[in-house]
Amino acid sequence: MKILLIVNPNAGPNVFKKQLRTAQDYLLQQGCELKRVDTQAKGDATRLARQAAADGFDVAVAVGGDGTINEVCNGLANSGVAMGVLPAGTANVYAADVGIPIWSPLTPDAVTKGAEIIAHGHHRQIDLGRVRFADGSSRYFLMWCGIGLDAAISQSKDAARSPRPLNFAAWLISGLMVTYDFIGTRATITMDEGEIKERVLMAVASNGQLYGRVWRLAPEAKLDDGLLDVAVMVGHGWPSAIKHIIGMTFRKHIKDPDFHLHRTRRLTISTREALPVHVDAETIGVTPVEVEIVPGALTVILPEDAPVRLFVN
């Protein structure tokens, strides 16, 4: 098996990097042909993944956080080359959702276990989401596309980005500050089932179930059903936002009359005032947008015991 490791060198502490070398040795011992390349700038992981497909690699491994994984997805979409993941970010939402071990001081062997999954795990085709902007540009996403409040929080995080990623506490403080000032705006959302018009704080089109590592926003979403699960949170200002956060935290959001969950293959959203848009926690544009599902667009390597609740097949 010919494997390319695409490594974000800024992701993970030094002890993770030591474990990564151990994981590389393990893959070599398993008879894998291995090459490592480090990213230097935004977009490198997409370019390197696309080149891996052109050069005949069997697997491209994203070593980093959800942003690195998103870039690799964009390089591998519809290529047939499998994506493996060794998570090294702050949230690691995709890895947590599908059961890939995540390194921490309490799980020091997680990286080697992740390498075992890459060498011997199950290859499965899953869907990707794709968002299109008014200028014609587009971007795939693996987990979610968020519009409104969560994208504004991601935008504030990106604006304050230091050479090392923000830790969870800093992200939380930044999020609370943005939430306090965010009021939402009138929006028109068109889906397979029809059109809705509401004052929207946030809309999230989900491919997977887990959101932000903490909340199971779309508890019935499947990675291979050819559909997006779209959560629309209605309200005005920070009291509504806090109410939604509390509802999600205690898993009461589905019953909230201001929380609407839809299932669709495609949606468009236009807003009275432009709202920021993110994919997999990276802000990339503003409304209006069209979002669609691309069935079976990505092959991934999963643990043999990946949660069955995430799949139809």
Description:
The chain has a 15-stranded mixed sheet that branches. A two-stranded antiparallel sheet has the order 10-11. The chain is 30% helix and 35% strand. It folds into 2 domains: 2-120, Probable inorganic polyphosphate/atp-NAD kinase, domain 1 (Rossmann fold), CATH 3.40.50; 129-294, Tumour Suppressor Smad4. The protein is α+β, with helices and mostly antiparallel strands and 313 residues long. The chain has helices spanning 14-29, 44-54, 66-76, 93-98, 110-120, 149-159, 168-181, 237-249, and strands at 2-7, 33-38, 59-64, 82-87, 122-133, 138-141, 144-148, 185-191, 194-206, 210-211, 215-216, 228-234, 259-264, 266-271, 276-279, 282-286, 289-302. The relative contact order is 0.17. The model is unreliable at 162-166 (pLDDT under 50).
Record keyword descriptors for this entry.
313 residues; alpha+beta; Rossmann fold; Tumour Suppressor Smad4; 2 domains; 15-stranded mixed sheet; 8 helices; 17 strands
